[in-house]
Amino acid sequence: MSYSRNKGLEINSLTVEYQEGHLALEQMDLCLPEHSIYTMIGPSGCGKSTLLRAIAGLVQSYTGEIKFNDQSLRKQGTALIGLVPQNYGLLPWKTVHSNIRMAMRISDSGRHTKGQQEQQITSWLTAMGIADLAQRYPLSLSGGQQQRVAIARAFAILPEIMLLDEPFSALDAITREEIQTIFLENWISHPTTTLFVTHDVEEAILLGEKIVVMPSNKEEPPVIIDNPVFQISHEDKRDSDEFFAQTKRIRKVMQEKW
Ligand SMILES: Nc1ncnc2c1ncn2[C@@H]1O[C@H](COP(=O)(O)OP(=O)(O)OP(=O)(O)O)[C@@H](O)[C@H]1O
């Protein structure tokens, strides 16, 4: 299936200042065409989480513009956004199932029947390998299990924009590879406009159509790198010459910009 690419997500001159004199982001510009997936890496404190939180509407005191298909995201309800935050963002007093169910109820606005929603929840929990945890509460789960619930919840609401803040950081290496594959398969069948923050260079190369490298100097613009590895079939990526060349290229940019 081919998707039209509208303007998508546009960040124009975004500046966030939590405390006077301390800029978390300074005049940042970035564009992600609709239905694209970009990965982002950057040094700690360069403003990656702040960017995701501003797009998601959790940070409102910013200057500049954030638009999706020409509509300002300042207006609530402009676009349905799925956010997987670093702290997972689960409600501790709700079970795993209820956490996902509630997000779907809020976002669905009558598009799907209760039965269809239940089917979706079961299918996402199964895909994430946590179907047996449906009736548990978040605080009784490991970090990696909570992370998988947060990912299942973000997928289940079928968002127009997906924002992920180091979503696989708490997973062991094998589970991480499995979930990366599931994640990418899902993105291919539902190509939501996606910005994926990671500290892992390999993960950035495996999952991004383009890779955004944030500089440590906030006055400098992000470096956007084309990623030919994205075109290679997922299981062959790690062993390809392009993957090694891309790793070298990105490390060089990191050395220059961090
Ligand atoms: N709620 C807040 N109040 C004050 N300052 C904040 C707040 N949140 C973040 N900051 C500051 O804003 C800057 C950017 O933080 P942010 O969390 O966006 O960086 P990051 O690139 O996501 O870092 P990391 O990779 O460590 O998660 C940092 O200097 C941080 O200390």
- State mean pLDDT (0 to 100 scale): 94
Structural class: alpha/beta
| Poorly predicted residue ranges | none
Q: Give the DSSP E fraction (strand runs of 2 or more residues).
A: 15-25%
Q: What is the succession of H and E elements?
A: EEEHEEEHHHEHEHEEHH
Alpha plus pi helix count: 8
Keywords: ATP-binding, Nucleotide-binding, Transport
Domain ABC transporter: 9-241
Protein name: ATP-binding cassette domain-containing protein
Organism: Paenibacillus anaericanus
Question: Notable features of this structure?
Answer:
258 residues; alpha/beta; Rossmann fold; 2 domains; four-stranded antiparallel β-sheet; binds adenosine-5'-triphosphate; P-loop_NTPase; ATP-binding cassette domain-containing protein; ATP-binding; ATP hydrolysis activity; transport
Structural description of this entry:
This protein is α/β, with parallel strands linked by helices and 258 residues long. The protein folds into 2 domains: 9-79 and 160-257, 3-Layer(aba) Sandwich (Rossmann fold), CATH 3.40.50; 92-158, no CATH class. Helix content is 36%, strand content 22%. The chain contains 8 helices and 10 strands. The chain has helices at 48-55, 96-108, 114-127, 143-156, 173-189, 201-207, 234-237, 241-257; strands at residues 9-19, 22-32, 37-41, 62-68, 71-72, 81-84, 161-165, 193-197, 210-213, 223-226. The strands form 2 sheets. Strands 6-7-8-3-9-10 form a 6-stranded mixed sheet, with helices on both faces. α2 runs parallel beside α4 (143-156), α3 packs antiparallel against α4 and α6 (201-207) crosses α8. The N and C termini lie far apart (39 Å). The mean pLDDT is 94. It binds adenosine-5'-triphosphate (ATP). Adenosine-5'-triphosphate (ATP) binds next to β1 and α1. Adenosine-5'-triphosphate (ATP) binds at residues 18-19, 24, 42, 44-50. It comes from Paenibacillus anaericanus. GO terms for molecular function: ATP binding; ATP hydrolysis activity.
